[in-house]
Amino acid sequence: MRASLRVTSLSFLVIIGMGLGTCVHAQDVTPEKSTVPAEAAKPAGKVIPEDLTADLNVSLYSQYIWRGLELSRDSFVILTVGYKGFSVNLWADLDTRFAGTQNREFKLQETDVTVSYSNSYKPWKLNYALGWILYDYQPVSGNADGTIKDTKNQELFVTLGLDVLLKPTFSVYNEIETGQAWYFNLGLSHSFAVYKDWSLDVGGWVSYLINNSSANPHFSNFHDGNIAVGLKIPLNSYLSVKPNIQYSFPLSGDASTRIRDNSAALFHHRQDNFVYGGLIIDLAI
User: Residue 13 phi/psi, 5° resolution?
Assistant: First the structure.
């Protein structure tokens, strides 16, 4: 465990060194896994093509909670490359105590690929994005033999947002490979200036899940709610750090049962709400 944390810490120092040496501009991290990069600044002397953007986001978290479900522990990495509204997002969860290994060792637990297109319609102050996500999960505990097979899944999604007070955002995800499921997410957020260019970012979102997959019990109800607070601290034009804390909780009795059953299968405890946090380091070019 200590060795794994040393490896993770070293990775952070490398990223910080890159940012301090080259000057960078950071983007905010959305409540879901980041899939659409924010429009990057275009400073004079940019060394990559003007319409090409790249973002490296490294987050060290106490837990990995996805849509209310406890899936993993500790850090993950997000890497995004975008061009003229189109982007490819590579996402990896590096777990220092992976539940699917005998000794809960350091392991790559999940890798995702997202291909998306984003744009805006300025007369309506409307932002929109649509895309495709491929999820690739490693084996985890839960079955009688202690593991399940490698699991892959795919989703299509569309996101609509308004550039007005509280920045309301509505997203729809449709699972298309392992079964038929719909996940609806409505979020609000706001940033408060606190000191120079520092900002206190506050957000919350609620969800509704419809799951008709044969691999999981049928579910149709409100699912998880989340509240997040983070202090974004730009270090220069490209690099920022953000201490962040988040609270995830069920929105219905059915959701509570589903989330508790998931935690019992993977981590041998029944829990339906989680307070977790970490440090986000963001490098955008």
Answer: -65, -35
pTM of the model: 0.77
Q: pLDDT digit of tens for each residue in the chain (285 aa)?
A: 333 333 333 343 333 333 333 333 333 334 456 444 333 333 334 445 667 788 888 888 888 899 999 887 655 666 566 666 799 988 888 777 655 445 556 677 788 999 999 999 999 999 999 999 999 887 654 444 444 455 788 999 999 999 999 999 999 999 988 778 999 999 999 999 999 899 999 999 999 999 987 666 789 999 999 999 999 999 998 899 999 999 999 999 999 999 999 888 877 788 999 999 989 999 887
Q: Give how many domains the chain has, as a whole number.
A: 1
CATH code of the domain covering residue 126: 2.40.160.40
Cα angle for residues 22, 25, 29 (degrees, 5° grid) = 130
Structural domain span for residue 211: 2-284
Query: Rounded to an integer, what distance in angstroms lies between the CA atom of residue 274 and that of residue 90?
Result: 26
